[in-house]
């Protein structure tokens, strides 16, 4: 969104303190805000804003009720107490799953209210769908079913903090990918590092977003931790090897049992590991993070190392298996390439 001229102080601070995004930071790019505020009457949607705004408000109130009910007792700070340490391992692990939901619910509340405010003033209008129904998702910042039902870290990232992810994608990630080339793993790592830096400089942000390396605090030396970026890279590699096997050889139809099993395992591992990883996002300090992660025996790190080793050993055989299935189905062309299917 190119800014062709410097904004006045009123324009800039109007954007920064626009009530639709005041609780959550600017809800849109500056030029989107300027185009909306300068729009004439003929450019403003005539659709009713009330029902979509009420739905967003109710959504925020629902998660507000969840927070009031459970957040005082189910949170990452409770995992610092002796009572949590006395729980069996599986209960400690399950407790962190609930704590992760409580942490995300805080964001669901403020983002839903911000979305409702943007809809009320007409800013949330995003044209019409194929059936002629008005869309009000222009400034939506989270797709809750997409987050809670994510079967991979890629899908989770696409549904969470959408506005920030769009900014990171266009202004960081894609700028490191030369035209005509494929993204490299370093692009994702640097992008997550930029995300960590804008959150602040508490060590906890870096345990989540990237590797914490040689950071000394309270006599702790932080060894290399698995981050979202590394898990996302690993997930892409596994997907390329395994997911085609969950479909018919032509890639058109999913195999009901195997595809369901693949998606279920993806959801359990994605959310299970994520709810451990985001603990430092709340507790912030390395000593507190170490306390929680020790309580689950650094399960997420062992998981990453084990799955990485399995991928390294198995992926040649999985790729060979894919090729044999295609050959058996007669979908391999004479030059050895896969035939195009309709």
Report on this structure.
This protein is mostly helical and 342 residues long. It has two domains: 141 residues, no CATH class; 194 residues, no CATH class. The protein is built from 15 helices and two strands. Strands 1-2 form a two-stranded antiparallel sheet. Helix 8 crosses helix 9, helix 9 runs antiparallel to helix 11 and helix 11 runs parallel beside helix 15. It is globular and about 60 Å long. About 5% of the residues have low confidence.
Kindly report how far apart the N and C termini lie: 38 Å
Largest sheet: 2 strands, antiparallel
Order of helices and strands, N to C?
HHHHHHHHHHEEHHHHH
Label the overall shape.
globular
Mean pLDDT: 82
Structural Rg: 23 Å
Low-confidence stretches: 210-226
Q: Roughly what percent helix?
A: 55-70%
Multimer state: single chain
Number of strands: 2
Approximately what portion of the residues adopt beta-strand conformation? under 5%
Helix count equals: 15
Structural class: mainly alpha
The number of domains is 2
The main sheet orders its strands as 1-2
Which terms summarize this structure?
342 residues, mainly alpha, 2 domains, two-stranded antiparallel ribbon, 1-acylglycerophosphocholine O-acyltransferase activity, Lysophospholipid acyltransferase 1, MBOAT_fam, membrane
């Amino acid at each position: 969104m190119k800014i062709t001229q410097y904004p006045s102080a009123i324009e800039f601070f109007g954007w920064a303190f626009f009530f639709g995004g005041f609780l959550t930071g600017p809800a849109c790019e500056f030029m989107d805000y300027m185009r909306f505020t300068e729009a004439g009457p003929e450019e403003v949607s005539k659709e009713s804003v009330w029902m979509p705004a009420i739905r967003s408000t109710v959504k925020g109130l629902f998660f507000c009720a969840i927070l009031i009910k459970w957040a005082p007792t189910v949170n990452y700070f409770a995992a610092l107490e002796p009572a949590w340490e006395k729980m069996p391992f599986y209960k400690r692990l399950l407790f962190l799953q609930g704590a992760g939901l409580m942490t995300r619910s805080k964001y669901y509340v403020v983002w839903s209210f911000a979305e409702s405010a943007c809809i009320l003033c007409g800013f949330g209008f995003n044209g019409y769908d194929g059936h002629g129904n008005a869309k009000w998702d222009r400034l939506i910042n989270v797709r809750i079913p997409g987050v809670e039902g994510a079967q991979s870290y890629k899908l989770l990232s696409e549904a969470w903090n959408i506005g920030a992810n769009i900014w990171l994608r266009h202004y960081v990630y894609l700028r490191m990918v030369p035209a005509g080339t494929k993204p490299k793993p370093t692009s994702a790592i640097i992008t997550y590092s930029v995300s960590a830096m804008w959150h602040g400089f508490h060590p906890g942000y870096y345990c989540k977003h990237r590797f914490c390396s040689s950071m000394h605090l309270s006599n702790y030396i932080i060894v290399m931790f698995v981050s979202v970026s590394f898990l996302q890279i690993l997930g892409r590699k596994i997907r390329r090897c395994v997911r085609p096997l969950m479909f018919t050889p032509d890639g058109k139809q999913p195999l009901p049992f195997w595809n369901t099993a693949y998606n279920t395992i993806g959801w359990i591992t994605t959310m299970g590991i994520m709810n451990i990883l985001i603990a430092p996002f709340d507790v912030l300090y390395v000593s507190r993070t170490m306390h929680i992660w020790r309580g689950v025996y650094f399960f997420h790190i062992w998981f990453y190392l084990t799955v990485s080793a399995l991928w390294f050993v198995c992926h040649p055989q999985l790729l060979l298996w894919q090729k044999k299935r295609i050959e058996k189905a007669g979908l391999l062309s004479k030059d050895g390439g896969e035939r195009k299917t309709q």
